[in-house]
Amino acid sequence: MKVDAIYSQIDSIANTRSVVTYLPNFLTILRGFAGPWILWLFYTGGIASPGIAALAFSSLLLASFTDYLDGVLARAFNAESKLGAMLDPWADKILVLSVFAILPTLDAELYPWWLFAIIASRELLMEGIRAWRRSKRHMSHEDPSSPLALPVQWSGKVKTTAQMIFIHLALGLHLLDLLPYPAYVISGPILSSWAMFWLYIGTAVLTVWSGLDTLRSSKPAQ
Fold it and tell me: 15 exposed, middle or buried (CB, 10 Å; 0-12, 13-18, 19+)?
């Protein structure tokens, strides 16, 4: 009986491990769906609702946490995969661009559409180039040795971090702006000072620069 119990426990652990190995990709997919979910919240619930703003901001926080958690789980359970490596940047882009698309509806002067267009164009263009290069040489997603590879540079990681910080700040300040006094005392001067507009400009410049840096770094040596 003891032997049977031991085997049963081993099978249980093995099954649990099998489930956990799929968890990182599942979290990545959830993060990708979080972007459209936040869009849906604002466009159906209204941008002036404190409850909708709080739910959207909470969803953004949870989605961002999955970006950290899926990497930790993948490394801990040796569950890193080509599928995960392909899905992860797309999930990040869907989340980030979804929130950026909301911002002009919150305040078109602070968050103009043309800045969103610049950021979205850069992100989609770079992913299009990556897809074209991979298909041209039939190379794997993680083949940095190929002259056609477009590996992620440190500037790209800085860009993603800056974008994440900005969208959290923008939605967080929007939520504070909808709350009654004294929350407005905190958010009002920040928004009225146009600090967010210049932070948006800086984020867009960093986004474009990181794309140019990636293209420059990917050129084969002459």
Answer: exposed
- Which pTM value belongs to this model? 0.79
d(CA 6, CA 14): 12
Answer for the pair 163, 153: CB distance below 8 angstroms, yes or no.
no
- Each of the 222 residues of the chain gets a pLDDT tens digit; together they read 454 544 344 344 444 445 566 788 888 889 999 999 999 999 887 788 888 999 999 999 999 998 888 777 777 777 667 777 778 888 999 999 999 999 999 889 889 999 999 999 999 998 888 778 777 765 444 454 444 456 677 888 899 999 999 999 999 988 888 877 655 555 555 555 678 899 999 999 999 999 998 888 766 544
Taking the domains of the chain in order of start, what are their residue ranges? 2-217
- Does the structural domain 2-217 have CATH classification 1.20.120? yes
DSSP secondary structure of the chain:
-HHHHHHHHHHHHHHHHHHHHHHHHHHHHHHHHHHHHHHHHHHHH-TT-HHHHHHHHHHHHHHHHHHHHHHHHHHHTT---HHHHHHHHHHHHHHHHHHHHHHHHH-TTTS-HHHHHHHHHHHHHHHHHHHHHHHHHT--TT-TTSTT--PPPHHHHHHHHHHHHHHHHHHHHHHHHHSPTTHHHHHHHHHHTTHHHHHHHHHHHHHHHHHHHHHHHTSPP-
First to last CA, the chain: 70
